[in-house]
């Protein structure tokens, strides 16, 4: 049976037209569901009639958080087009690869990132561009909303979004997100967090990230709640919004570093958290001592686990278990199957560490233009997450370590192969390896272990300068270690467990 896709903004505009959908904190603009419905319709008309966007075409967005990015997402839905949010932290070279792969019809961008967006669009021969603010508003004013009869006939199986995530080979992969995946994530996360019309969520993560877009912006809009859009995370402003109760903020989601920055802010001890009904955390392991700090302030942070490829929710703690099960990622969400598998493909026993596999309507059908990755990532419909996991006797899951070498810095996945490729561009370097090491501020950061060629000279500053020119800041190694040789196993591969044993010191209390 084919399940049709229905537009949530249009639905709530019909039932509760004056209810607020989005507030843009940067300039105070407020968007009711009726106003947002009208604007989405006008944008869909402009994209279709004036910019030639048809079903299946991609529309890329490079912008800081803004309501307009959400309008692009929903306008693409009405056209059957595919929304491609771009990471604002990437360099022109990195974005050029992604945009070249996605081949969007339109590059939408804000004024702040206009130079980067237009340079990438020119390099990739993107046919059209559209800038937020004045040009965007003029385009909407010049057309009438696309009539309902002209909306595309879209099903849950159709791709709505392509979200790029770094690959273990160093090349980003475009995870295809269907309308059905997003819908089931709304159901799955909504059930755990009690999302409803009364939900008021503060968005602090970037909308190009699945944690920003889907935890819990889309679930909140699906339920008819209110999203407060913060252009970029500001700890002081976040604490003030939680404290003053002006908007009735009751839901916050962030990666561990967000909560770390909040509890280190001088206003933390003075903030009234009584209105914060849900504090969700994911994207990286949460240190137990940090969980306890928030628990002492009356906020039991609900940990969870997910991936871009799973839309993203897979595991989540119920609020009642948040304190007693600190350190666990919880149990599977409603419409999801999970298992922990040994390397030989057999089911791991309780307490035994294996790789987490996921199956269900929330799992990606595959990667854009990557049949090789599709073949290696799935077994009989099960997605291999690449994360080492164990389950206790009560059915609670614990993410133990990365099955692969990826590490997470400030909620962003970093794959060493990509950074190593950049290091090897330096003529002075004979060998290089990247490992993730504990970082009090970002959770983890990169350590570059480097072997210099005989007769060559190389400084830490030179390595940092080289990386900053070619990589997003979160991918650049924080520290450099010079050694005479890298440890290797019997097959000649660099043995990273040995490097971790040499350089990684576990933080106290974890």
Which secondary structure elements does this structure contain, and how are they paired or packed?
Elements: H1 8-15, E1 20-24, E2 29-32, H2 33-50, E3 58-62, H3 67-79, E4 82-85, H4 92-102, E5 106-109, H5 114-123, E6 128-131, H6 134-141, E7 159-165, E8 173-178, H7 179-193, E9 200-203, H8 210-223, E10 226-229, H9 235-244, E11 251-254, H10 256-264, E12 278-281, H11 288-296, E13 302-306, E14 313-316, E15 331-332, E16 337-341, E17 354-359, E18 367-368, H12 371-377, E19 378-379, E20 382-391, E21 397-402, E22 407-409, E23 412-414, H13 416-423, E24 429-439, E25 443-452, H14 460-468, E26 479-482, H15 496-503
Parallel strand pairs: 1-10, 3-4, 3-5, 5-6, 9-10, 9-11, 11-12, 12-13, 25-26
Antiparallel strand pairs: 1-2, 7-8, 8-18, 13-14, 14-15, 16-17, 17-20, 19-20, 20-21, 22-23, 24-25
Helix pairs in contact: 1-2, 2-3, 4-5, 7-8
């Amino acid at each position: 049976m084919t399940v049709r896709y229905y537009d949530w903004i249009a639905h709530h505009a019909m039932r509760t037209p004056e209810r607020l959908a989005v507030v843009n904190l940067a300039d105070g603009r407020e968007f009711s569901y009726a106003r947002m419905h009208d604007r989405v319709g006008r944008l869909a008309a402009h994209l279709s009639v004036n910019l030639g966007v048809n079903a299946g075409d991609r529309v890329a967005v490079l912008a800081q958080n803004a309501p307009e990015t959400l309008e692009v997402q929903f306008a693409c839905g009405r056209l059957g087009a595919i929304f491609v949010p771009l990471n604002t932290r990437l360099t022109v070279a990195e974005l050029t690869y992604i945009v070249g792969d996605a081949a969007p019809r339109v590059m939408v961008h804000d004024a702040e990132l206009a130079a980067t967006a237009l340079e990438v669009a020119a390099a990739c021969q993107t046919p059209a561009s559209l800038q937020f603010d004045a040009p965007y508003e003029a385009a909407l004013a010049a057309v009438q909303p696309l009539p309902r009869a002209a909306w595309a006939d879209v099903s849950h199986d159709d791709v709505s979004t392509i979200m790029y995530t770094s690959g273990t080979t160093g090349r980003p992969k475009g995870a295809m997100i269907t309308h059905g995946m997003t819908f089931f994530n709304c159901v799955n996360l909504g059930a755990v967090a009690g999302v409803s019309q009364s939900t008021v969520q503060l968005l602090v993560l970037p909308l190009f990230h699945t944690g920003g877009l889907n935890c819990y912006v889309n679930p909140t809009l699906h339920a008819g709640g209110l999203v407060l859009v913060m252009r970029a995370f500001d700890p002081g402003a976040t604490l003030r919004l939680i404290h003053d109760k002006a908007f009735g903020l009751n839901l916050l989601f962030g990666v561990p570093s967000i909560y770390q920055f909040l509890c280190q802010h001088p206003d933390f001890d003075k903030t009234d958290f009584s209105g914060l009904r849900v504090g969700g955390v994911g994207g990286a392991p949460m240190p137990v001592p940090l969980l306890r700090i928030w628990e002492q302030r009356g906020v039991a942070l609900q940990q969870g686990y997910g991936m871009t490829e799973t839309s993203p929710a897979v595991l989540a703690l119920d609020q009642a278990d948040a304190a007693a099960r600190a350190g666990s990622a919880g149990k599977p969400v409603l419409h999801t199957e999970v298992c922990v598998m040994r390397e030989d493909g057999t089911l791991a026993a309780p307490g035994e560490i294996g790789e987490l596999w996921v199956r269900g309507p929330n799992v990606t059908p595959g990667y854009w233009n990557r049949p090789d990755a599709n073949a290696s990532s799935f077994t009989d419909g099960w997605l291999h997450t690449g994360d080492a996991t164990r389950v206790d006797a009560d059915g609670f899951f614990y993410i133990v370590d990365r099955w692969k070498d990826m590490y997470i810095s400030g909620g962003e996945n970093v794959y060493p192969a990509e950074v190593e490729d950049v290091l090897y561009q330096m003529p002075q370097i004979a060998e290089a390896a990247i490992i993730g090491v504990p970082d009090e501020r970002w959770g983890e950061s990169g350590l570059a272990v480097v072997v210099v060629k005989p007769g060559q000279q190389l400084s830490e500053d030179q390595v940092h300068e080289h990386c900053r020119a070619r990589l997003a800041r979160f991918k650049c190694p924080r520290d450099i270690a010079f050694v005479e040789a890298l440890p290797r196993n019997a097959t000649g591969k660099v043995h990273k467990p040995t490097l971790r044993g040499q350089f990684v010191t576990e933080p106290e209390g974890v």
